[in-house]
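Hi,

I'm pasting everything inline rather than attaching a file, because the server keeps stripping attachments. The sequence lines come first, and each chain or strand is labelled.
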Amino acid sequence: MTTTVTTTTTARPPNAFGLGLARGAVELKTFFRQRDSVVFTFSLPAVIMLVLGSVFTDQFEGTGITASQMFAAGMIAGGIASTSFVNLGIGISTDRDDGTLKRLRGTPMPPVSYFIGKVMLVLVASLAEVVVLLAAGMLVFDLALPTDVSRWVTFAWVFLLGVIGCSLLGIAASSIPRSARSAPAVLNLPFIVLQFISGIYVIPVRDLPEPLVRVGSLFPLKWMAQGFRSVFLPDVMAEQEITGAWEHGRVALVLTAWCIGGLVLCLTTFRWRSRRDG
Amino acid sequence: MTTTSAISVRGLRKRYRDVTAVDGVDLEIEHGEVFALLGPNGAGKTTTVEVLEGYRPRDGGEVSVLGVDPQRGGRAWRMNIGIVLQDASDAGELTVAETVAHFAAYYPDARRPVETIAMVGLADQARRKIRTLSGGQRRRLDVAVGVVGRPRLLFLDEPTTGFDPQARRQFWDLVSSLAADGTTIVLTTHYLEEAEALADRVAVIVGGRIVASGSPATLGGRADAAATVGWLDGTTPCEVATADPAAVVAELAARFGGAVPGLTVSRPTLEDVYLDLIGSSQP
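And the predicted assembly:
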């Protein structure tokens, strides 16, 4: 044997979390540079909020709360689902189609770094979406920001569990579209139906036919909307919920269950290759 | 399997449903070698390479790439391997410099991004967004991303498809300079002149099997094949096939008493040999 030795790389490989942050920077740059997509992603829920919100003019008797304020509070859940579930479902589907995933898989990047990058993208986009929706709700419908800490604590955990659950569902759903081209259509249909049966567009949620409520209650969106209503509306409005209470325990339970279930779905269904690639 | 080769393949088989894509391929590729896999579309080139790259599981056979089974290749193995994809269109919104710097971060001992970009001839495009690059520039970027981690083994899958002749020539120079640095290169192509210009050794794959291998000059008995000597007798073109063209030329020189009008001596081109091998030689 000759002495042309194959020196194995011994330098320490970059760590997975650091690379995840680097992925996050790349994801954010890519996302925010697509101006048209940014504008539509952020403005769609806000526009729906403004258009539908101005249709509802009733007040809930004796509460001083208008229907549009209740609608605006629930719409925050819809906005977050759009920046997590829809955004990831389309984004990962695109990554699978345009070679991003294939290229990454051919490098020493640990797979977890890719998902850390996506989490960063979703957190930043979702927070921005909440700011946009709250601003619109406050300016147009006099939605009030809560002043006591306990409500912000509720906001924080509903936001986090909601974003995580919807993101995991979005990652799982990204395997459904056959190509990036069909992804928006495939992801938006279930999303819009889900918003409808989760009592986002129809308020109060009691007005929905019971079978629809039952189906909607299986998914996280209904519980996120309920959680956000409990943050931004006075407690007297709990009467308008299905059981007449905010049910924080149940909200936390269902959202946590979806985080776990979504993770299992991701681990069992995630594909690195597109279908036409075998 | 212990081996001192960069790549060692025995009896590789791969099926897609009822289609057998690779049907018992053996390969031995040495360190520092530039190896070209030739074959028509659908012959199993890409499947073979994707098995070697660790992208696809195999149905049978033994495969060792840099001493590791690609199906079990971990991060340490990936750090020594560079892959230039055939048809990626990712990261359109990032600039060339951002992309190369990002991929450099995956490796502990990466080339400097600026130097890598200059090496592939994209220094002037470094700040351009990737979606604004031409096809040839895009492939050069793919090469930059493939080599930024200083791989010992580089895979190039049909790297110059769609290039104009000048871009192809520049690309060949780039590959040659990488090979000169000692990088082992595995190349698939259906351009014969590309294999001839770059490869130390070529193998022809047809229907999932290797039908011939050797240096471009000797492939398929090319060096020993009959040569054709042609000349003009008055205005009539004449031609004779011979195993000993020098004797024929000497005889002609004697007959014409010096210069032979329209003299040519030719061997079968690599293309002739190749077309013969893949069984679609046309008149």
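The CA atoms of residues 172 and 266 of chain A lie 5 Å apart.

If the labels don't parse on your end, tell me and I'll reformat.
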